[in-house]
Amino acid sequence: MFAALSKQNSGNVKNRIDEAVADNNRITDVAAAEVSLSKSPRWAQTEGTPLPLGATWIEEEQAFNFAVHAEHADGVTLLLYSANDFANPLLTFQFDFLRNKSGRIWHCRLPLIQMRGARYYGYSVSGQAVSELLRFHPEKVLLDAYAKSVFFPLEFDRNLAIAPGPNAGKALLGVLTGHDVAFDWSGDVAPRPESEAIIYELHVKGFTKNPNSGVHPSRAGTYSGLVDKIPYLKELGITVVELMPVFQRDPHEGGFRG
To answer: Which of 210, 240, 241 minimizes the C-alpha distance to 225?
Structure first.
């Protein structure tokens, strides 16, 4: 009877060892699967995300996410340009209707290493006419409404934007920003409490364009011209300057704020 009990106990121990080994194998398989998943690219990494709109630099991925609103479009093509050729795209990316569209937004993500040193970008959009006012002209290079910076080629011609035919080389382009070395704000300290701030609101052009500003004509109406006026502003006791507006405007429009 003792021998039978010993044999039974031995069998139980063996079963528990087998179960422990099986559990360990399952844990190992799960861990391996998790490692495999972590190494696999996420959906956002391969197809981009619909938000935020515009061209957004993703530091941890060393890539740009592009997102543009084109609800009624049948096709969207991203056009990437070099620093020296604004007429012929350096690289094009055709958005896939199934993979690169979420609702009204077309999106993609491109690693910097695949962009071949591109500096500027635009879009070509195609589709069926929705109304008399809403038509598509795929031969036109379109500016991203959410571009963080706008580039004006020397041959920019705003009339070509509304005239028949292509406008390659003479269209506004978005500037790819964010991947260059950013300004280091570490150690920066406000000179005085906000409660003691004396704020001066001004327009860069309007403040320095007039000859009575004392700014040299070559810098009048520019940020460099505004820098020339810093001593004057400090003499007035100004501690904070607010620029209104800071948005890019078409220089062909002219105007006080231009």
So the answer is: 210
